[in-house]
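General statements about sequence and structure are easier to judge against a single worked case. No coordinates are needed to read the tokens, only the vocabulary itself. The sequence in question and its structure tokens are set out directly beneath this paragraph.
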Amino acid sequence: MTKSRAFLFFCLSLIAGLFLSSIVFIPQLTMLGFLIAGIFLISIFWEHERPVVIGFSILFFVLGIWRLQAADLDFQNNGLKEYAGQEEKIILLGIIDDEPKIGQKSIGITLKAERLTYNNQDIIVSDRVLINISRYPEYHYGDKIKVKGLLEIPAGNIDGFNYKNYLKKEGISSTMNWPETELVGEGFGNPIMKALFSFKNKFEEGSRRFISLPQEGILEALVFGDETNISKDFKEKLNLSGTRHIAAVSGMNITIIASLILSSMLSLGLWRKQAFYVTVFLLVLYVLMVGASASAVRAGIMAFLFLLAQHLGRIASAGRAIVFAAAPMLFQSPFLLLSDVGFQLSFLAILGIVYLQPIFSNWLSKIPDFKLFPLKSTLVATLSAQVFTMPILIYNFGYISLAAPFANILIVPFLAPVTILVFIFGLSTFLFLPLAFILFWPTWLFLTYIVSVIDYFSKIPFASMSFENISVVWLVIFYLLIGFISWKINKKYSSPVFLR
């Protein structure tokens, strides 16, 4: 057995331990039993390769269980939790450590609290709190503020969405609504992040001068994953048409877009090495442009590994590289596995492209790839990613869009060129206004086309099918079935896999 294959088993065992510990509590006595079994195999059969690998895999499995339990214990001992739900107001002093989410009547800010005042006692803390305040006065990233209000425990499920777990993965255990606020100082944040957020604000302000809703909402969602200016009704249309993923900076989107850019560069005549570097540069630029959030960085890393495997001509080993990347990410942030849909989509979209791309490429061999429009590559990448991500979307959102394949075929091929066009247009609105006037019409036309396709497919009778209370057991069964079918079909098409 190669070292790479053994390390793959160790990483998978770690992830399995994290997953199991996420859904059921594993007693310490059971963990001790596994630990003894692993050490026994390693020590008794040291000169035999397979038992030793199994023994170390068991140890990594136990490590995954322990890591999740340790992280959960740290979260439960959060310094602010004991003050949540009290009837007496507290005072928090801290720094806004993320971009404020500006709504029509309110602003959501994430405060990294440094000091808490309760019953005239000052207590040093280091915890994050989600705070909803009135629309004005406005606060910005890096501002140090003082807030006074009631600390609350976040609600659990809201319309089927586990809001508490969503905040948990962000390290947030409590919220505060409509407190008294006071600005203490400015400029305490990371200067690079502050520059990125400033760029985003200029970009959005400039585009709003030219384009109105709902096209502007789609523009901001495409470029930044920002759904603030997408109405509730249009979000429902995105759900019904199966195109909600285009409004999020998800791993699925980043992977597909990176794959399409690489295909476009190759079709334009660039050498594979040149196309790789151009695509990586655009990928880094895109991640920085959306604010380099943790989810975007994770998705960018996975997309980069996928591109690297293509560049080295070893796309079949990309799945292994993704597991190698996912294991340390999950060890560092164990709540991601079940609570971060973006991480799940990143992981599954790339695995789908790796293992299903040769199958769909063979089935769709008669579809051409045009020089400036890689139609076949687009369809292959899209279908491959969607098959692997469909069960997780059903599990998290409780529905499947029957119109999704048709709507995505009409939209996804345009995502890469439209995103690039929108990006250049947005830059021109505050850097070179004459170019913005030139690019306005094609930008508006493409956005209108996307809006029209979404609107049309959302109105088709029986456009979606709803599911209720999907068990995680069924989710595991679905993926075992998909994995088995993919493996069987790949044995039939066993030729080397290269993205063409």
Q: What stands out?
A: Confidence is low (pLDDT under 50) at residues 495-500. Residues 202-492 form one domain. The first strand starts at residue 90 and ends at 96.
